[in-house]
Amino acid sequence: MTTLVSTTDTVTRDALAVLQPGFTGTTAPDWLLRRVGEGLASVGLFGRNIDSPEQLAALTARLRSERDDVLVAIDEEGGDVTRLEVRHGSSFPGNFALGSVDDVHLTRAVAQELGRRLAECGVNLNWAPSADVNSNPGNPVIGVRSFGADTRLVARHTAAYVEGLQAAGVAACTKHFPGHGDTAVDSHHALPRIDVDLDTLHARELLPFRAAIAAGSKSVMSAHILLPALDPDRPATLSPQILTGLLRQELGYDGLIVTDGMEMDAISKTYGIERGSVLAIAAGADAICVGGGLADEETVLRLRDALVAAVRSGELPEERLADAAARVRALASWTRGARGDVPEPGAEVQEGTAPGTGVSSDIGLVAARRAVRVTGSGDLLTEPGYVAEFGPVANIAVGAETPWGIAAELGRVLPGTGADTYTGANTDPAAEILAAAGERRVVAVVRDVHRHAWMADALDALLAARPDTIVVEMGLPESEPRGALHVATHGASRVCGLAAVEAVTGTKG
C-alpha cells in the first residue's frame, strides 16, 4: 500500500480519526497500537476479541496506554446479540423481552447494569440500542432486537435504555437510522428497500429516534437501507438528504453519526468500502464502522488513503472531514470525563426490579423472569425429558457462536434430560424426535416458528403424536400458542433460557 501523504499531517490524522476498525485476536496487535499513536481515535471490538472480563480490561488498558481518550466500541445489545458473553450467552434479556414487560424503570436499570459491566472492562461506546420498530414480523435481521411493533412503546424504551447506558458512563449509539424494522431483507446480504410515504416514516420509524435524541444519545448509527421517499438513489448511510437534511437539520441532532458496518453487502457489493466511506463522510457521517469482516491493517490504510485522496481531489471538502473528526474527539472527551461520574453499583434503586436488588448484578434474570408468558393448562415437567431444539440459521448480527436454548439448564435441574438440535435439513424431524425421546416427555424449543414453514410443519406433526409436548418459543411469538404448555420468553439469551426452565419445571434456581 502506498501512503499518499505523511502520517503526521492534519488531513491524514483526521482520516484516521473517523475510522472505527476491528482486529483479530485478544491482544492489541502492534499495527493497531501504532495507528492509535498516529491519530486513530476509535477501535471496534467483536466476539473474537473477548475471552473474559479480565482479559478485556487488560486489552482496553493497553489501548489507552497509547491514547487515553481512545473510543473502544462494541456491539453489545444484550439478549440475542452479545459480544461480552459471546461464548455463554447474555446475562440480560434483549429489547423485545424488555418491551413485553413495558416497564421503563426496568429497562433503564438493565441498561445501566449492562453499561456498568462494559465500563468496568474499559468499553466506552456501545453500538446500541436498536430503536427499530419491528413493524414487519417477517424481518430476518431485527425481530427480538426491537422493543416491539408499537411505535410509542419503542420510543419510551429507547429513551430509557439510552439514559441507563449513559448513566454508567458508556455512550449510546442508537440504531439503525432512520429505521430498519419494516424490511424483509438483511442488509448484511443485500440492500433493503422501504417503500413508505413521508407521513408513515415520521409517525412510525422516526419517533423512537426523536426520543433518543431528546434523551441525549451521544451517537446514532445509520442504516444501509434505501428509502425512496427521502432519497431514491442512495441508501441512508450515503445520503446527504437523510444524514444531513433529516437527521442534522430537521431533527436537530448534533452528536456523532456512525455508519453501520461498511463491509456489509448492501454497501461493499454496490459501492465498495473505499467509495462508500468517502460518500458516507460527505453525506454527513462522522465515523466509519468497519471490522466485523475486514479486520486488518490493510483495510485501515485503504480507507484512510481513500479519504485523503478525496480531500486532495476536492471531492470531499476538507472542512467536512475536519468536522467529522472533531465530533469523534468530542465524544472521546465526554467518555473520559464520564469515567469519574459513574455511581457505585446499586447506589440508585430503580422501580420495577425485584425487591432489594436495585441496579444489581441479577437485574437481567429479574427482567427475563418478568418477560415470560405461559399459556396452556398442561402439567409441569417434573421428570427428565427430551429437548428438541429447532435451529434456524442465525443471522450475522446474532452470530452462530453464541449458544441458546434451554437444554443445558434443564439437564442441570432434571439430570437425565436428553437433547438434540433439528434443522430444515432433517428429512422428518417429528419422527426423529419421537424416536429419540422414547417415553420421555418432549420439550420443543423454537425460534420464530412463524417464519419457518419446516418448523411449523414439524411442530404440528409432533403435537399430533404427543399432545403433552411443551413448546418454548424464544423468538417472536407470532404463531398461535400450541402445546400442553406454551412458554414465550421473548428472546433467546442465556437468562431467557433460565427463566423458561423455571417456568417449565416450577423451580427457581
Can you offer a commentary on this structure?
The protein is an alpha/beta fold. Helix content is 40%, strand content 11%. The protein is built from 17 helices and 14 strands. The protein has helices spanning 10-17, 30-38, 53-66, 95-101, 104-120, 151-167, 198-214, 240-250, 265-268, 273-283, 297-313, 318-338, 363-371, 407-413, 429-437, 453-465, 494-505, and strands at residues 19-20, 42-45, 71-74, 125-126, 171-177, 219-222, 256-258, 288-289, 373-375, 386-390, 418-422, 442-446, 470-473, 485-488. Strands 2-3-4-5-6-7 form a six-stranded parallel sheet. A six-stranded mixed sheet has the order 9-14-13-12-10-11, sandwiched between helices. α16 links the parallel β12 and β13 (470-473). α10 (273-283) crosses α11 (297-313), α13 (363-371) packs across α17 (494-505) and α15 crosses α16. The termini are far apart.
Structural features:
509 residues, 11% strand
